[in-house]
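Appendix B: complex inputs.
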Amino acid sequence: MNTAEIINMSENYLAHTYGRYPLALVKGAGVKVWDADGKEYLDFVSGLAVCNLGHCHPKVTEAIKKQAETLIHVSNLYHIQPQAELAQLLVKNSFADGVFFCNSGAEANEAAIKLARRYSFDTFGAGRSEIITMNNSFHGRTMATVSATGQDKFKKGFEPLLPGFKHVPFNDLTALEAATSDETCAVLVEPIQGEGGVNVPSDDYLEGVRALCDEKNLLLILDEVQVGMGRTGKFFAYENYGIEPDIITLAKGIAGGVPMGAMMAKKPVINSFVPGTHASTFGGNPLSSSAGVASVSTILNDSILENCLSMEKILKEKLTQLQTKYEFIKEVRGKGLIYGMELDFEGGHIVTKMMEKGFLINCAAAYVLRFLPPLIVSEKEIGEMADALDEVLGGLER
Ligand SMILES: *Cc1c(COP(=O)(O)O)cnc(C)c1O
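Resulting structure:
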């Protein structure tokens, strides 16, 4: 099928939940993807921070192929070797003592919300169920996670929402402290807000949140669905800030593009999940777990984090040069290979113009262009993208 045929079929038969670009991608390798008409693109979206190793990384593809020929699914009625291996790999490289696997970021946050409430119930008794989250946060689209999310546009028409969430401004410790009460059990925060517009907190913010949680016996839940898995140049984003959370949620980049989510916690918190408290039919199944083992071990062992950090320097330099050149660029911000460029107008048409030139970027919040290249991106590819962006920005009629 060509692009027009795919778009036609897609429009006819799917729920219209997405405002999709008029593009149908059919093939990928590394940083490159191709559309159904054979046009090539450099991908600075990475399936929304999912394909951190690029498209069809040979180690991930090989693991999927091998597992698909051996055993795809059995359910969590039984022990699953690749699931146990992935859990061991994650625990040995983190603060955590135990892992629960699910299938998405929203599900990982659902698990975290349930675990926080249950742990508080087990430890302090009933009545301590409130979770504080941040304005402009994004935690998912299920009823609980949309209730946790601090953006009204995702909630409209879906009321009544799940009670028990309070929202405060991001990067504001005073507001956070003022919002805590005897009913609070946890604080849920993204180390860097992704969907909210690549918002990076001040260097000591998370340390302050950690101290406040310790003082008031609250659990610190970090949503690293977007910025974990090497995206910031550390395997976990919290490693940049000299703190450890009590609970962390992961998804997106964890299994190289195969759907998977994970929630991890320290003891004794993780022990509040006992048989019967939570479950997922597909969670950690042999296929996704094998892809997860391949992805995680490659990120940890194949100099991926080193490349992420050296390419950050290039990307930051190129974007900052553009900021000096164009007065309508208000700010360039990010960490590792998640960067945002805030404009003083909406950036949707720039995304489209970049696509015409063969480069995929997107907007996080209407005014912020977001750059999420695979962590294996090269200096040459960043240069090509920046040159194209320069041409697009220079050609704007304003
Ligand atoms: C994408 C995202 C989610 C939701 O993940 P899904 O897999 O789409 O459910 C949750 N939190 C953050 C920070 C995200 O970026």
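The domain at 59-301 is CATH 3.40.640.10 (Aspartate Aminotransferase; domain 2).
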